What does this fold into?
Amino acid sequence: MKKLLLPLVLVLFHITCFSQDKHIFSLSKNDFLLDGKPFQIISGEMHPARIPREYWRDRIRMTKAMGCNTIAVYIFWNYHEATPGNFDFKTGNHDIAEFIRICKQEGMWVMLRPGPYVCAEWDFGGLPSWLLKTPDIKVRCMDSRYMSAVSRYVARLATEVKPLLCTNGGPIIMSQIENEYGSYANDKTYLETLRKLWLQNGINIPFYTADGATPYMLEAGNIDGAAIGLDSGTSDADFQRATDRNPNVPSFSSETYPGWLTHWKEKWAKPDTADLKKEMTYLLSHHKSFNLYVIHGGTNFGFTAGANAFSLVEYQPDLTSYDYDAPINEQGQPTPKYYLLRNLIMQYVKYKVPEVPKAAEAISIAPVTLTPFTSIWQQLGKPFLSPQPQPMEYYGQNQGLMLYRTKLIGHKKGTLTITEPHDYAMIFLDGKFIDTVYRAGGKWSIKIPESSNKNPVLDILVEGMGHINFAQYMIDRKGITDRVTLNGMTLMDWQIYPLPMTEDFIKTLKPVQAENEGKGTFFKGTFDLQKTGDTYIDLSKYSKGIIYVNGHNLGRYWNTGPQQRLYCPASWLKKGQNEIIVFDFHQDKAETVSGKTTLE
It folds into this structure.
């Protein structure tokens, strides 16, 4: 009998402990409630895809040590479903469930921001670029083709996060419907359909929406029954607008900005901390819930950086760094802003705030000599044939490069116009570099000189620099998106060579002597390390391109600035020999690169 009682006692103990770990998060008229008691959300946002997995726990602990009790998490649909129907929620940074489990282990609640659209200065706002293979598709609405893909994504993601809801013993207390929809459109049927999809897939926690604190955005973007997030909420007037929209649900500042984003060709964004302190003092003294967007930005590794555009001829690609001037910098170190906010939060919260963890060590790397070992022109495979240029997405390519080639018949010199180049194009005639065309500004024409060849060969090498992630111009295909004309004549009969520049593509490179005047060259070098650590690879001696360290795509660099150094985490380095490959569009001779301990 005693042998039977012991297992029964253990089972009952397990059930009791598990049930005690379940919680009810709910909405009252004025407050968020946790197990029926008012709960102030003090949240810091970070994105697992932008943080080396080895540092997830460290960044969460840093957030807790600043006084936060919650982590807000964007999930990027295109990061988890890179090709239709093929999901990755397990490898490397894709294991979102593990990130959420670590939050629970560290005593942090989680607000889920699952999209399908998220913005976030992330490529296409998190939407998969393969949607753009459908020529007339419409996104963020009830287009049946879009919604079919959304339904598949919601169902698959729900299997990952449902066990982690607070109602099931996990840390997730609330989930967002879409993101800042009132800045984009007004399809309430679409928003309600998203809510129904989550409910049908077992996501039984409160929902919220997030919009700018203006009446029209709140009317278009919020749905009845969902808490109201304000991006941002900074005053009584802002919160009154939320009450005017719906007096029966609580509101909070869903994005309070301690920093800001930076585009290429701009100065680093460094907002005034006096304004931040004023906003935070208001929120804390009025016991308002809030989320700091972002407490830690991380890095747009590879081709994950997005872009902004607010007119047809405007294009503002985001940097590789997503440091954001955030309280925890790109490398995970606390900044003066971190301590300002920590000291302020500690004046108002009643719970104990832990000590600040020690940040990971950064290392320098002595100058590394690189040598040219091949060029893009030696990597051309079998081309696709097309009467006119087609965008990258039509060939299953997200970004990277694409080479468009044709022979000039009829007109052989004069004004060449590319409509539209997305985003950066180099033009060659008979292998000789002529000029570049950049998307921004609408100046898409150059002069083509006369050639001595009877049938001149025109090459246009195009780089995609990030799909637009916000506002009305989000349908943003890469490559040449319409046509090419010479003196008004439409050029036909194209050969199109995909060059995805992915990590797998780089593995296939073979050493061959570079051609085409040294344009489009790959440089390679090796260096030895006695110990590993975080570092920033300094590319200030190079022009424009992409860098790979031990096969990892660190992202884009461009001498227009402001970013000249790219973050390389310690986990991507190794003791002993390491390899660097730099692809540069314009560099005609090899230069050294080195490792620095800071972003600037």
